[in-house]
Design goal:
Layout: H1 11-19, E1 30-32, E2 37-39, H2 46-54, H3 59-68, E3 73-76, H4 82-88, E4 98-101, H5 109-122, H6 129-132, H7 159-163, H8 166-179, H9 183-190, H10 196-199, H11 202-221, H12 232-235, E5 242-248, H13 255-263, E6 267-273, H14 278-282, E7 291-294, H15 305-316, E8 323-325
Parallel strand pairs: 3-4, 5-6, 5-7, 7-8
Antiparallel strand pairs: 1-2
Length: about 325
């Protein structure tokens, strides 16, 4: 009967009740389905609510007003997702939109509510997590960053999220059967009638898969060093700003380095490190620095200590420019 002539008989009585109430303007922007547009002060009028009982629901106009305002995340507060389904047919654009009902008929309320909050959060909606976790005893913790502590901290998928991974499950079943050389399971997964075609290739495929898994696990535990050749286009790049050339005192010829940087537009400042006093040598290098080229590694008697101290000294001096550490006689790592 709502929003139809059937309500006419109660409007006067309803108006008397509403006139006894006090109202305030909404504190957040609100699009009303009575007007189909943004409303504010008119909601403080009893007549607004009398019209709400009697007049048509302008849901389409309201949704298009939200779309015109740039809204892309819609959260439905209600007993099911009916309005979310209707709203998708009201929009005219192709923007990335999401409709998130907090409750769904026949589903666990806590799961659907948390799911809607989480989806809103990953779309940039600000969530008051302190209020969300209030009373649960939850607290923030720092996750470990140690590369070789192979502990999984991500939650396992359950419910609808797990069902969405059906393709991954089928893939997993196939390779599990291959690794176990389970011809019966493999034939069932692939719906094969003739198993003979697989009898010869299955042992080799199983061995390859197990070896690949083992190698992948080992590779995931290791740090990697990669080498990239310096192409002519990179080598001929123009430079600018002040570049530091850090050299050990005595016995190191830095002429080629200095001339190469200067020829490409760099303003070169030589920093001579005497007796390992890296910090003292850098004290005179003031102002912005575009790059640092270190030849300290060429002093084989000093080892790697001066290079490590250079890294520390640059950090203390606030120099965030890239650092190149040059050496000679490096061992080849391959044709590239």
């Amino acid at each position: 009967a709502f929003h139809s002539p059937h309500m006419d008989g109660m409007l006067d009585d309803f108006r008397q009740v509403v006139e006894a109430l006090s109202f305030a303007a909404p504190r957040i922007p609100l699009v009303s389905n009575l007007t189909g547009s943004l409303v504010s002060d008119e909601m403080s009028s009893p007549e607004f609510w009398v019209r709400h009982v009697r007049e048509a629901v302008r849901f389409l106009d309201g949704m298009q007003a939200l779309e015109a305002a740039g809204v892309t995340t819609y959260i439905e507060l209600g007993p099911d997702g009916v309005l979310s389904a209707l709203a998708q047919d009201c929009l005219t654009g192709d923007a990335d939109t999401a409709f998130l009902p907090v409750l769904r008929a026949g589903r666990v309320e806590a799961e659907t509510f948390v799911g809607a909050v989480a989806q809103a959060h990953v779309r940039g909606v600000e969530v008051d997590w302190s209020a969300f976790f209030a009373g649960t005893g939850a607290r923030r913790i720092e996750l470990p960053t140690y590369a070789f502590q192979r502990q999984r901290y991500w939650l396992q998928l359950t419910g609808a999220a797990a069902r969405n991974g059906l393709a991954g499950d089928l893939d997993s079943r196939f390779w599990d059967a291959v690794e176990r050389e389970d011809m019966e399971s493999l034939a069932d997964t692939l719906e094969m009638e003739d198993e003979g075609a697989w009898s010869s290739v299955l042992p080799a495929l199983s061995a390859w898969r197990r070896g690949l898994r083992t190698q992948s696990e080992v590779d995931a535990w290791r740090y990697r060093v990669s080498w990239k050749p310096l192409t002519d286009s990179v080598g001929g790049a123009r430079l600018s700003g002040v570049w530091l050339v850090v050299v050990p005192a005595g016995g190191v010829d830095d002429t080629a380095v200095v001339e190469g940087l200067t020829a490409r537009g760099a303003e070169v400042l030589r920093v001579v490190v005497d007796g390992g006093a890296v910090r003292a040598a850098l004290a005179g290098a003031t102002g912005p620095v575009a790059g640092v080229v270190s030849l300290l590694a060429l002093d084989e008697a000093a080892g790697v200590v001066p290079s490590a101290e250079l890294v520390q000294a640059l950090g203390e001096a606030g120099v965030g420019a890239p650092l190149w550490c040059l050496t000679r006689g490096a061992v080849s790592v391959g044709r590239s």
